[in-house]
Amino acid sequence: MTVSKMPDENGYFGEYGGQIVPPDLKVIMDEINVAYEKIRNTDEFLNELHELYSQYVGRPSPLFYAKRLSNKIGGARIYLKREDLNHTGAHKINHCLGEALLAKYMGKTKVLAETGAGQHGVALATACALVGIDCEIHMGEVDIKKEHPNVTKMKILGCKLVPVSRGTKTLKDAVDSAFEEYLKDPQNFLYAIGSVVGPHPFPKMVRDFQSVVGKEAREQFLTQHKQLPDIVTACVGGGSNAIGIFTAFLGDKTVDLIGIEPAGKGLDTPDHAATLTLGSKGSLHGFECYNLQDKQGNPLPVYSIASGLDYPGVGPQHCYLKDIGRVSYDVINDKECLDAFMTLSRVEGIIPALESAHAVAYAMKIAKDMPKDKMILINLSGRGDKDADFVAEVLDL
């Protein structure tokens, strides 16, 4: 099966993905898949979604040449796909609108989700307010403290925010908590997963909604430069922004695709979330993927300075793309991330999300050793308003 035809009918990308869920929940997942397949290509659904993308989100997002950053680093030219300029400040709104419309079509009464950095929570609360469906967001207490601006926005938008105090009080625990609530009434609730993870059909659905990013970027490059970028890079936690921009370029063999994971405080410490780099195959949250796990197969505690990246698993399509060698995966540590955060802010006047700053840091690292006629495209997946106070405290600004 070619990459463009994946996943298969059982939700597998090669040996990754699937539905590792109880039989009664599998019935619910299959119902969601049937509903999605029924409406995904209808004129009514596509017209409503595309109208919201253009008139509500502000798509297409710009392709920006970071000239001053490129000149400062030397070497290759660096371009930014400005998902930070979307309504709600990140790429998350792309799939949240799709999931909210699907929930409305299916007659669901409440949409549930987890959030780490808060961008998915804000985007989903926004989408639910727009379509008139109740929204409940579960968020770890550590992330609530760290990402307070987004917490305030979610409350203003009318969602019910559930603090999660178990475990590490971060993203993985928020997923567990939200999923438990979902299981109380899956007939009437929709769990709107915030990345290309979870049981089938969510990795497929979220990828499809996010693929608008790559389609736009590819067309913009061809229109503006009459050629494609040499490298496309994006940060990877669960992997939604990366798969969103990579998908349109998978068939372009001249384009190197590179996903960037968080090395945190170092790969030689337990404080990282480099799943594809150091993980092994296992099951997590209803699907098969690379994950960071102990000898018994239990997920390990993970860490990243970027709350949206501290997840012990990763999307199944990323796992497959790593195995076949179509996408390479590298790492950036906290120090490099913070340096990129400050550099982009002070050189281009663009404050990136800490998640996105991982990809910026990688581009800065490799650009200087590349010829000046080469081009690097970064998916700048979100803006850093949510991180500004935290970074100021960490750096004592």
Structural category: alpha/beta
- So what's the oligomer here? single chain
SSE string, helix = H, strand = E? EEHHEHEHEHEHHEHEHEHEHEEHEHHEH
- The overall number of domains is 2
Distance N terminus to C terminus?
52 Å
Determine Rg (CA atoms, Å): 19 Å
- What's the total number of strands? 14
Shape designation:
globular
User: Which segments are poorly predicted (pLDDT under 50) over 5 or more consecutive residues?
Assistant: none
Q: What is the CATH C level class of the largest domain, in words? A: Alpha Beta
Briefly note the CATH topology name of the largest domain.
Answer: Rossmann fold
How much helix, percentage-wise, in residues? 40-55%
Chain-averaged pLDDT? 95
CATH architecture of the largest domain: 3-Layer(aba) Sandwich
Query: How many helical stretches?
Result: 15
Largest sheet: 6 strands, mixed
β content, as a range? 15-25%
How would you summarize this macromolecular structure in one to three sentences?
The chain is an alpha/beta fold. It folds into 2 domains: 12-52 and 92-203, Rossmann fold; 58-90 and 211-395, Rossmann fold (3-Layer(aba) Sandwich), CATH 3.40.50.1100.
Question: Top keywords for this entry?
Answer:
14 strands, single chain, Rossmann fold, six-stranded mixed β-sheet, alpha/beta, four-stranded parallel β-sheet, 397 residues
Describe the structure.
Helices cover 44% and strands 18% of the residues. With 397 residues, the protein is of the alpha/beta class. It has two domains: 12-52 and 92-203, 3-Layer(aba) Sandwich (Rossmann fold); 58-90 and 211-395, 3-Layer(aba) Sandwich (Rossmann fold), CATH 3.40.50. The strands form four sheets. The chain has a six-stranded mixed β-sheet with strand order 3-4-14-9-10-13, with helices on both faces. Strand 5, helix 5 (119-131) and strand 6 (134-140) form a beta-alpha-beta unit. Helix 5 packs parallel to helix 7. The model has no long low-confidence stretch (mean pLDDT 95).
